[in-house]
Amino acid sequence: MPMPTPKERLLRTLAGEAHDRPPVICCGGMMNAATVEIAAGTVYLLPAAHCDGRLMAALAVDVHRCTGFENLGVPFDLTLEAELLGSEVDYGNAACEPRVVREAFPSAGAVIRDSVDSLLGHPRVRALTDAVRRLSAAHAHLPVIANIAGPISTAASAVDPLAFFKGMAREEHATHRVLDLVCEVLEEHARRLVAAGATVVCIGDPTATGEILGPHRFAEFALPRLSRLVAAVRSAGAPVIVHICGDITAVRHLLPEMRADALSTDAKVSLGALKREFPGIRTVGNVSTQLLEFGPPERVARQVQRLLAEGVDVVAPACGLSASTPLTHIRALTDAVKLGRPLYRNERC
Amino acid sequence: MAEQREHLFGQLSDAVVAMDVEQAQALSRAAVEHGLDAGEAMEQGLADGMHRAGIRYERQEYFIPELLLCSDAMYAGLEVLRPHMSNSHCRRRGTVVIGVVEGDTHDIGKNLVKIMLEAAGFEVHDLGRDVSARRFVDRTMEVGADILALSTLMTTTMPRMQDVLMLLQQEGHRHRVRVLVGGGPVSQAFADRIGADGYAPNASAAARAAIALAARPASPRPADE
């Protein structure tokens, strides 16, 4: 069997087919690896790359080359969806990711519906779609992972989060209405990214954690939308990775119902135990981002080897990387997967 | 009278646990009309309810929406009681400056901690979210805070907590304030690594940690400065 390309390896892994070894990826979006060390070594300075397809694509290629992650991942934040719904975003700089500084609506009841088409005409959506198109055209052997924010995270950054969470108990109808609107926008957004050439879609929904919602509200508000979004992406022809943050204990029994091709979790979750409990589930993760930041590389490599021994399907950082994570630590991660043993390099890209 | 007072405080506590804003207001008015100590009504009634809600949260019987609604009831009652608090013999436990570190605008957790700290009797200065190390240090010194509470939900912004501690250290203020850290990805190990004085995994625990920290006498001269 000829050596598979990274794209073939990831697709086979996500389809549950035989492969030579687990892929090692960093999805992008909220879990991007555009660290200061990389951004400082290139001319594609942040924050400009957040709003320009050409720069975004070029930075994604640099991240891939410098880190050894076997994918191209865009965008580099989790604010795009909230911004197109009207929230105000500060794009930050190389050391600080974009963040929502003011939500668009004070409560779920105050959300005004706009047409999906006009919302998706936002310049940042165009930049992201352009980046996906460029990357998939120029790098046929690499999987392009398009990242979107999940429905709960999007809704809770388009609506004031305090009001939104209270609304789950006090204005259920309006909350459902907002989540349906958000879901409709996200579905179409994802379809267009797949049409532009995205190999895989990663839905990051850190706010949809059981720690915040509890099992009943997760089942009532989050699960139906996540399932709907997963189904929409899969019917558009791309596999889906869903990332959920935090302790998943309260909702773990519900996770297989999303029917994602793979599930990515926080470092505190044992992926080995999750696989034993749900043998059908494929897992992505979950190298501690704290360990990645502080090292040393030997411990990063040991954690990777432990994950491989537990049978994790795709090795990846467990959550968002700190922008000050040293490249040598990231390389210890990717090398440990590719070589099955640690190899430390100090070179800069 | 004592029995009636205890009954009313119990009802106030129940109103908070039941997330009942109107009941919390009505019972607070009743407490004032009966000439009860407003501070005691807060402490043994409203705050007690918030404390019980926090326990339900830790047991995973309540989640964040319920805690927020309980706090609405607590604050609604507190609004009624506040004008009468000056006569109270209840004393503040200390002063806390709280905020979400720079780069992070997720403030639900911070807001919950603020609620539990206020319920525990602290005077809380809330700097909001996306707060620079400079602002944290300046405000801490300005109000003479006993405790500085730092929050972040994201792994990407955890290093900003260390920035605050370093700035305190650099300017020679580290020994003047106890630093408490928390938030989704934060752990005791991380708190130890950056040299924070305390860590709490949730809002109720944060209030307990703050009480313990406030009780510790501040060292007049640190060994490392």
Kindly provide the name of the CATH class of chain A.
Answer: Alpha Beta
- Helical content of chain B stands at 40-55%
Largest sheet of chain A: 7 strands, parallel
Number of domains of chain A: 1
Low-confidence stretches of chain A: 341-349
Let me know the average pLDDT of chain B. Answer: 91
Q: SSE order of chain A in H/E notation?
A: HHHEHEEHHEHHHEHEEHEHHEH
User: Strand order within the widest sheet of chain B?
Assistant: 2-1-3-4-5
| Global morphology of chain A | globular
**Number of helices, where a helix is a run of at least 4 consecutive DSSP H or I residues of chain A:** 14
What would you note in describing this structure?
- The complex is a heterodimer of chains A (349) and B (225).
- Chain A has a single domain (6-338), classed as Alpha-Beta Barrel (TIM Barrel).
- By secondary structure, chain A is α/β, with parallel strands linked by helices.
- Chain A has a seven-stranded parallel beta sheet with strand order 1-4-5-6-7-8-9, with helices on both faces. Chain A has a two-stranded antiparallel ribbon with strand order 2-3.
- Residues 341-349 of chain A have low confidence and may be disordered.
- Chain A contains 14 helices and nine strands.
- Chain A has helices spanning 6-14, 36-40, 53-67, 80-84, 116-119, 123-138, 151-158, 161-170, 172-195, 210-235, 271-277, 289-294, 297-310, 327-339; strands spanning 72-74, 88-90, 99-102, 144-149, 200-204, 240-244, 262-265, 283-287, 314-317.
- Chain B is an alpha/beta fold and 225 residues long.
- Chain B contains nine helices and five strands, in the order ααααβαβαβαβαβα.
- Chain B has helices at 2-17, 21-33, 38-58, 64-81, 108-119, 133-143, 159-170, 188-194, 203-215; strands spanning 94-100, 122-126, 147-151, 178-182, 198-200.
- Chain B has a five-stranded parallel beta sheet with strand order 2-1-3-4-5, with helices on both faces.
- In chain B, helix 4 (64-81) crosses helix 5 (108-119) and helix 6 packs across helix 7 (159-170).
- The longest helix of chain B has 21 residues, at 38-58.
- Chain B is globular.
- The N and C termini of chain B lie far apart (55 Å).
- Classes of the chains: A alpha/beta (349), B alpha/beta (225).
- The interface between A and B is medium-sized, with 34 and 31 residues.
